[in-house]
Amino acid sequence: MTIVTLLLSTGVSEARKPPPIDPALLSAPTISATPAAVMIAGFDRDQDTRVTRAEFDAGLDRSFKHGDTNADAQISLIELSGWAQSWLGHSGALPGQYDFDRDGDDRVSRDEYRVEFNRRFAEMDKDKDGVLVRAELITLSSPRFQPRQPEKPPQKPNEGKKAR
Q: Is 157 contained in some domain?
């Protein structure tokens, strides 16, 4: 009985609440890399942490060839799913069909493939020197949500009312 009384008086029987989260941590930017950026980082053949235009072009050729499993010089939508799984890490990762297939024929030509990746290279190459360094391959993004306000615990009936 004494142990139970001691435990109750120390609050051990109550569920412990996690410490409050600092709102500043919730609004800090997130550092990430898109699936395309991870793929492009893999084009770095000499492992100097820089992707030159030559390495990029060679990597595009390798990845397109890998995606074109039937060697018909285009990537069908079925082939695109397998290509995305292998090269981007997930079959639904971007870039996807609507990024590549500009003419709507449900196939990705080598030219469509190059146009999309050249656009991404130009977008990532912040200093326009024709080389992608790791800092250009990462993305800083702000949270897209508002921190949740702590919920008030429900009041028990007659709580807060004076007894008569």
A: no
pLDDT tens, position by position, 105-130 = 999 999 999 999 999 999 999 999 99
Instruction: Tell me how far apart the alpha carbons of residues 51 and 133 are, in angstroms, rounded to a whole number.
Output: 6
Distance, in Å, from the CA atom of 55 to the CA atom of 84, rounded to the nearest integer, reads 20
Q: Identify the helix (H) or strand (E) that includes residue 60.
A: helix 53-67
* Measured distance CA(126)–CA(128) in Å, rounded: 6
Going from the C-alpha of 61 to that of each of 26, 57, 67, the distances in angstroms are 41, 6, 10
With the CA atoms of 103, 136, 35 and 64 taken in that order, what torsion angle do they form, in degrees rounded to the nearest 10? 50
Specify the DSSP element, H or E, that contains 113: helix 110-124
Task: Kindly indicate the confidence band of residue 84, based on its pLDDT and cuts at 50, 70 and 90.
Answer: very high
- Write the CATH number for 122: 1.10.238.10
User: What domain range includes position 28?
Assistant: 24-141
If you average pLDDT over residues 74-89, what whole number do you get?
97
